[in-house]
């Protein structure tokens, strides 16, 4: 129990700082949305939305799921050099996929009915490649627990990208191409910085085992990611085909507001995975998976209630009157409560990925994507945007139920029945709020209720932290060296990559003596149990940084 609480304390402690950093940046970027919708016309905003959908498809092929494979290589197999070698493989892959997509734009643009928007599509290709490379680098920075550098790279690819794109639209030319060009410029800067602070190591023929292991794990993530794309983005393509660019722009605004909890859950899931990969004891891992899932469910209650209360107010700020925001509240609530089954399916996905069962997750996600497409084709022509939102909700409910059935073999304890009833009540209340007649009084009451849910959220978060803080000290991982000693140039690092140890699976935990330069921050269950042994430093070489001290509190 103590080890479990220690891990959960870290999941909601330092590990969640990565999600918090992303949350601040996402909110800052989102605050620019009202300006964007007013500077760009509806058709231009619709073009950006369609180009973004293309980017996300190409992003899957350019990244090939290597972000998670990098984290697994580092944490599960204790192979830092292998993780850096996968960065090298990802660099070659993104360049190759981007080049192929760039030169074949005329061949597939017509099939997407975007033949007259090839310039926007080429920007989308570059956006996808640079974003994929940045994401893989962020995966390694997360495993290294280099919070400052993680924040700098993600700040470039989110806030700076949005600000630069908006600046070009406002002061250069109000077109989709200008907006996409700003995004690409910032993404390239973020990708370059990621390669500098999380540099690649040469991947040679004798290291084929590392790449084979990574591809066996990551390749099933490609159809899973494509299916997730279909779940989250294909509805906009169907809406554009059925209802036009203006309708897809209105739906995109509503979806941006309502999907923020799902976006944060996705980021949190990525931030948590290194810890789950590092827990080798299966019983302990199952316990931590269950505890973290239920804690997230408890936090979802005030999140759903708060977003449901504040949605009409946010919509009026987010979009001008031409978007008819007063008619989008029910759409927002349908997408909003999708966060509940989304949180559940992420919990099961974490279980399957920690067990290496990425293939099972891919098959189930593909089935859910087919359900989503079928429902959208049937409901959008008849019910419009509301039918599209309902199709998204139904598909994620199906995905959660199917994954639960597949993941039963992991024997993760189920959530308490009382907690499930509370989630059902929160979803019902959110849907009911969509039918409240809006006037000055109700909007004021919504603002007050939204502030109350924020206090509720903080109280639940503090309670969860208090329940697990007692054993927090026992699960603190070893500190990484000072950030100023870690900023390396890509070229010299590649040349010196041979000094990073390459410990294969059969050799893990076998060696008790390693060079001091091999010390990197680990997320390993040995930190919780106290069974680890301090690595010795050769006396023939001086240490490159001052002696490290243990963290003093939950935040490190």
Please specify the SSE layout and strand pairing.
Elements: H1 2-11, H2 14-30, H3 33-39, H4 42-63, H5 66-75, H6 80-103, H7 105-109, H8 118-144, H9 147-171, H10 176-197, H11 208-218, H12 221-232, H13 234-243, H14 245-258, H15 260-278, H16 282-318, H17 329-337, H18 339-354, H19 358-383, H20 385-406, H21 417-433, H22 440-468, H23 490-495, H24 526-529
Helix pairs in contact: 1-16, 1-22, 2-9, 2-15, 4-6, 4-8, 4-10, 4-12, 4-13, 4-14, 5-6, 5-8, 5-11, 5-15, 6-8, 8-9, 8-10, 9-10, 12-19, 13-14, 13-19, 14-16, 14-17, 15-18, 16-17, 16-18, 16-21, 16-22, 17-20, 17-21, 18-20, 19-20
Percentage of β-strand residues: under 5%
N-to-C SSE series? HHHHHHHHHHHHHHHHHHHHHHHH
Number of strands: 0
Based on helices, strands and strand pairing, what is the structural class? mainly alpha
- Uncertain runs: 470-556
Question: Please, how many helices?
Answer: 24
Helical proportion? over 70%
Radius of gyration: 23 Å
Distance between the termini: 22 Å
Residue-averaged pLDDT = 77
The biggest beta sheet reads: none
| Backbone shape | globular
Explain what the structure shows.
- It is found in: Cell membrane.
- It is a multi-pass membrane protein.
- The chain has 556 residues and is mainly α.
- It is built from 24 helices and no strands.
- It is globular.
- The C terminus is likely disordered.
Search tags:
mainly alpha, single chain, 72% helix, 556 residues, disordered C terminus
């Amino acid at each position: 129990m103590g080890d479990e609480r220690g891990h959960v304390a870290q999941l909601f402690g330092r590990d969640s700082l990565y999600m918090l950093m992303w949350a601040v940046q996402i909110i800052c970027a989102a605050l620019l949305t009202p300006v964007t919708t007013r500077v760009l016309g509806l058709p231009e905003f619709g073009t950006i939305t369609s180009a973004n959908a293309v980017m996300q498809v190409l992003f899957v092929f350019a990244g090939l799921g290597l972000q998670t494979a990098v984290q697994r290589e580092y944490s599960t197999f204790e192979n830092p050099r292998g993780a850096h070698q996968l960065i090298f493989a990802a660099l070659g892959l993104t360049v190759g996929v981007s080049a192929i997509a760039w030169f074949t734009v005329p061949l597939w643009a017509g099939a997407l009915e975007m033949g007259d928007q090839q310039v926007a599509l080429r920007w989308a290709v570059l956006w996808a490649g640079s974003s994929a490379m940045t994401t893989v680098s962020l995966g390694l920075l997360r495993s290294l627990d280099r919070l400052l550098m993680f924040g700098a790279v993600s700040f470039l690819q989110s806030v700076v990208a949005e600000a630069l794109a908006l600046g070009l639209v406002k002061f250069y030319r109000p077109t989709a191409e200008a907006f996409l060009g700003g995004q690409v410029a910032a993404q390239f800067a973020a990708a370059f910085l990621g390669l500098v602070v999380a540099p690649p190591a040469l991947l040679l023929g004798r290291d084929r085992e590392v790449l084979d292991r990574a591809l066996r794990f990551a390749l099933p993530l490609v159809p899973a990611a494509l299916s997730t794309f279909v779940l989250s983005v294909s509805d906009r393509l169907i809406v554009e085909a059925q209802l036009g660019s203006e309708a897809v722009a209105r739906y995109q605004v509503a979806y941006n507001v309502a999907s923020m909890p799902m976006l944060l859950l996705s980021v949190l899931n990525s931030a948590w995975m290194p810890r789950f990969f590092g827990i080798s004891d299966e019983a302990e891992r199952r316990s931590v998976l269950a505890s973290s899932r239920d804690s997230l469910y408890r936090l979802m209650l005030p999140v759903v209630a708060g977003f449901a209360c504040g949605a009409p107010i946010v919509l009026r700020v987010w979009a001008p009157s031409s978007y008819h925001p007063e008619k989008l509240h029910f759409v927002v609530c349908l997408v909003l409560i999708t966060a509940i089954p989304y949180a559940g399916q992420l919990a099961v996905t974490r279980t399957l990925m920690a067990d290496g069962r990425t293939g099972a997750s891919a098959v189930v996600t593909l089935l859910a994507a087919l359900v989503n497409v079928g429902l959208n084709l049937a409901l959008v022509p008849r019910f419009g945007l509301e039918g599209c939102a309902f199709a998204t909700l139904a598909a994620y409910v199906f995905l959660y139920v199917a994954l639960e059935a597949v993941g039963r073999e992991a024997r993760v304890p189920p959530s308490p029945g009382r907690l499930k009833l509370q989630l059902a009540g929160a979803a019902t209340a959110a849907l009911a709020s969509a039918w409240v007649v809006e006037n000055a009084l109700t909007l004021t009451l919504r603002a007050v209720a939204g502030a109350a849910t924020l206090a509720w959220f903080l109280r639940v978060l503090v309670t969860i932290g208090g329940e697990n803080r007692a054993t927090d000290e026992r699960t603190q991982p070893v500190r990484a060296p000072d950030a100023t000693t870690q900023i390396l140039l890509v070229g010299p690092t590649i040349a010196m990559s041979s000094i990073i140890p390459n410990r294969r699976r059969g050799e893990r935990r076998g060696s008790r003596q390693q060079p001091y330069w091999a010390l990197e921050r680990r997320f390993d269950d040995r930190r919780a149990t106290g069974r680890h042994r301090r690595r010795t430093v050769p006396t023939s070489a001086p240490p490159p940084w001052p002696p490290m001290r243990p963290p003093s509190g939950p935040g490190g």
